[in-house]
Amino acid sequence: MRTYRHVVERLDALDLAYIHVIEGVTQGPRNVPGSFDYAALRSAFRGRYIANNGYDRRLAIEGCALGRADLVAFGRLFIANPDLVDR
Q1: pLDDT, tens digit, 9 for 90 and up, residues 34-65
Q2: What is the SS3 string spanning the chain?
């Protein structure tokens, strides 16, 4: 966790607009072994925090409302179904 926090702190110093964090295992569970603290990453970065992986509408709204993320990305469903928004 220290390594990732250090990287995020360094990115924050560059005054980037956002970071995009895949929370959990890519295409796998959101929970990772051990106690990885995404909230610590979120607090270490002053720009926009974009969360990703395993979010549904309810979880995304809740995460943004509670300040866990500024935005949530939904890549996989949209890549597999380009007309998803129209449906």
Answers
A1: 778 899 999 999 999 999 998 888 999 999 99
A2: CHHHHHHHHHHHHCCCCEEEEECCCCCCCCCCCCCCCHHHHHHHCCCEEEEECCCCHHHHHHHHHCCCCCEEECHHHHHHCCCCCCC
